[in-house]
Prior knowledge:
Elements lengths: L5 H12 L23 E6 L4 E5 L5 E2 L3 H14 L1 H5 L28 H9 L6 H16 L7 H8 L3 H12 L7 H12 L2 E2 L1 H12 L14 H14 L5 H7 L4 E3 L4 E6 L3 E6 L10 H14 L11 H4 L3
Helix pairs in contact: 1-12, 2-4, 2-10, 4-7, 4-8, 5-8, 5-9, 6-8, 7-8
Bound molecules: glutamine (GLN).
Amino acid sequence: MDTTRFDDDLRAMLDEVESDRRGEPSDYLEDVAGQHVDGLAVAVCTVDGHQAAAGETEHAFALQSVSKALTYAVVLQEIGLDHVLEDVGVEPSGESFNHLSLHDDGRPCNPLINAGAILVHSLLPAGDEDERTALLLRRYSALAGVELEVCEDVLDAERTRADRNLGLAHLLADAGRLPISAREAVAGYLAQCSVLVTAPQLAVMGATLAAGGTNPVTGERVLDEWVAQQAMSVMLTCGMYDASGQWVAEVGVPAKSGVSGALLGAVPGALGLATWSPRLDEQGNSRRGIGLFEGLSARWDLHVLQHRGALRGLSGPR
Ligand code: GLN
């Protein structure tokens, strides 16, 4: 991959989507100081640590639902895949992010819808809410290579809008599926949603997944390879809510979106890609973020299912 093109390509792509003002930002942003809904940033980090970015690269935004993929990875690493699969599936739900989508056996369909994410959060091996959040902050920070923090403003805004998540958690608790109280599970889940990152930091998190769990900037191994693979698997199949199928067809990059306008992508063996732009489409995905991913996937051949001549080695003379 020709990384000398990165700066030019990122700037060209920003220019292409800049004027798009379609969509509405999530309402929680009304209560968060310093937010501007027409902000725009894009950043990339390769698996060998080469970084580039354009736009408002210093602006910190909340992870929101992007955190679901990261917490899934942390919990897989801590307690193992079999254990997690007992409680949460890996099937796309085809429903909106906060729908109560359950398998026949009562498991949430996947870890990237709210019901699954709340349950996955509750599986973190820690004694109480503060310990769970502290463990997540340590792991998120290692993934990004910088100290990350919860934004109290965002958390307050989320707490005042928590009825639906509390409802989902109470239903899971009623079905005997939550190992902690519904209130504690939602409180911790909202704290993970409220962790702030910049686009360059988010791109490094993606690059860490893309590199099989080793942060390419710090050199720290944060996750096992199988964990990174499992996290990217659900990002590919479930990361864009009920637009996931179309996303694979058009962009083909394991990704996770959040209502802050964040979008995280990870192309295994190649790079992490992050965008931020708060105006959302009907599914709750960032409009200009989608445009940036579509454009960059085409420019840089990022679709993970593209034909790379995988069997070429078998077709030569014996
Ligand atoms: N905090 C939000 C919620 O759980 C996150 C939603 C999202 O980013 N899709 O409702």
